[in-house]
């Protein structure tokens, strides 16, 4: 008999929601029926792709009666009240990790579920990996022998610690980092070995957050579960990806790679002395090869829709909703009781955490901003805001969030939470403002989304600046909008952007369209506009894994765009910010554009050689054949458009791929002459600022 799928509402339509939605699409026992988010546009975008209804509030979604259960995917401080609200309404709940802020809140959710005769599940997705299930099966069958110890590691870079955004929930307090990532470790430990008792905690590798003190990037936890000694490691610096579980037994050692969904058993064998080590290595090699082939085939045939991360969410969805659909007891891996146990252990760890709290100065006056920075919480925006304050200008930062990384500047910086689609609100916020810097950009997957979220926003900001009577609007475009495929050409500040952009990547095309719309406002309505196009911006606060240089494969390997031997248009963050301010201050340059690109000091290969010389890190650097990359992209485009039926995709072009190598040199002589701008021209000084003192690896 065919069962009606359980109807699931997604509360929160951010990044993680798409993983949950795709997992539910693949689960026969459940279906996405609703998406709820205060940003209705965001909710509608996700809902439309799954044939679901969109809602702006939980109350509306509950009243509509379209759900049997929900996945709560909001920031963690909202998990507890939302779970209680949904359980009271008679809905089953799955809550993303951390399910709450402490064990007491988690126990309240479990009690509410019991009282309502509904199920409460924790979103510990890695318990659903196929290889994890094999590990548990091998342990139950005694294949590892008597288990005595285990190491569970989450060694994976957490880029926001070094390059932002700093206002996100995990960075607001030291404890939030463990609450965000610790459930991965402890859910595995509890499910494999039972109750975990914490014995010791060590914190290391502090990193300074702008205006918010420091945070530890290393957490080392010693624990015990029965007779099993546990070492739990959380490392968030730029490190090789090691998200793994190693279990040591009397007969074998098992290593589960969570990121690759592979399980390798290193077992004793009974071969003779000479053959014994050979057979052991042959066994390991065979296991690696077999699982590598299976995983590669799975991802190829699914067009990468069955990556290990996607499989973990699929396992979670089936494991949670499958038993309910079949009328079976809940899987203990994701039960409310297991969630309480995990959160109780996290409480124990945090009770041992004595990391110093940041001291935030009290305001002595209300800021009187004359400059507005839109996108002020990003890499360039943060540096620009601080430099403006250093030069004596108070700043109003416009952000989608309510927090900014400027708690140490309460007298000079105020953060205003505004939707960038709210032109009237932006106009009011610009009253009394002399200069507006628009550094905002959106990340979109179709041209229609770009027109709505980037182009229309930039045009709206321009109209708001004009209505508010600001003296100067500085818009940051990108040098990526140029055709940089010809090494014999030369790009100056007078070089126009290409007229035909349909076959350029969405970012380059969208930024170019923003420029065209704003220049039209300048010509027709005298918008006081100046356009600045930064080059490859490097320095403190910027990422190691800069995609303007190449395609990254973790922190230790990069495939350059091209052979990596042509000079790249680098610019130091300090020089970039100085150029932006000069674009605001120079007289008589309205309607002009300037490429903020430093002198040609080094190529991509030179840059990585300098990293090795300066900090001792030799990265794996290889050349990228851009013609082959273009061909591969063309094949992917056909698969996405014809097989997956995705619309709004941009057709790849050879010129676009060649432009990524920045083959065409820049001439910044007009920026130097008209702005009085003098970017760093000394190679040694560039290396000191961009590499030696930039904290690229987090320590």
From TrEMBL:
SUPFAM superfamilies: Glyceraldehyde-3-phosphate dehydrogenase-like, C-terminal domain, NAD(P)-binding Rossmann-fold domains
Keywords associated with the record: Oxidoreductase
InterPro entries per UniProt: Epimerase_deHydtase, Gfo/Idh/MocA-like_OxRdtase_N, Gfo/Idh/MocA_oxidrdct_glycsds, NAD(P)-bd_dom_sf
Domain NAD-dependent epimerase/dehydratase: 372-596
Gene3D superfamilies, alphabetized: Dihydrodipicolinate Reductase, domain 2 (3.30.360.10), NAD(P)-binding Rossmann-like Domain (3.40.50.720)
Domain of life of the native organism: Bacteria
Pfam (any one): GFO_IDH_MocA
Residues covered by the Gfo/Idh/MocA-like oxidoreductase N-terminal domain: 6-124
Protein's UniProt name: NAD-dependent epimerase/dehydratase family protein
UniProt source species: Ruegeria aquimaris
